[in-house]
Design a protein that fits this description.
mainly alpha; 3 helices
Length: 85
């Protein structure tokens, strides 16, 4: 029963991640303008991809703790980028 929930949990995380990135892009574009919002959003997407590639290369499994810390780190990156803009 638990094994059946794992793919669902990972899939729901990925859906939530895509939704969060879209929302963050929209929120960044509104106050920062299209150019700056796009640059920050692009850097955010590159950061996400680089993190997942690094985790795959280093064989780091996607666990709830690593996903939670990943989301906290993304929030800090977005906050820092907004302060710079």
């Amino acid at each position: 029963m638990l094994l059946n929930r794992i793919p669902f949990s990972v899939n729901s995380f990925l859906i939530n991640l895509v939704e969060a990135v879209i929302i963050v892009l929209v929120v960044l574009i509104i106050p920062s303008g299209f150019r700056m919002g796009f640059i920050i959003g692009f850097a955010l997407i590159i950061t996400i991809l680089a993190t997942f590639i690094y985790m795959y290369i280093m064989s780091i499994p996607l666990q709830r703790m690593s996903l939670g810390t990943f989301l906290i780190a993304l929030g800090l990156i977005v906050e820092y980028r907004i302060r710079l803009a």
